[in-house]
Fold this sequence. Notes:
Helix content: 25-40%
Radius of gyration: 13 Å
Strand order of the largest sheet: 1-2
Number of helices: 3
Number of domains: 1
Largest sheet: 2 strands, parallel
Amino acid sequence: MINVGKEGAFVIVDYLTNYKKAETVVKDIVSQGRQAVSKQCDMRNSQQVSDMVHEICDNFGAIRIVINVALSQYRLILKAEQC
Length: 83
């Protein structure tokens, strides 16, 4: 995610319980002059995911890239929604 931030993407770092780790990633991206924020969300919960997507779209614009590094053990289907 840090590399995506370096390329100019606005990065939203999702975390379930490890706020400190998420904030470390955010600080690394911000320290390079880019924008990033963290959001808590359980990606196994479709309602939380939907709520987060809508919040991101409302506050930051359309989602163009999704990088999933946490759900290797879960099956999650993300429905593309227009922001």
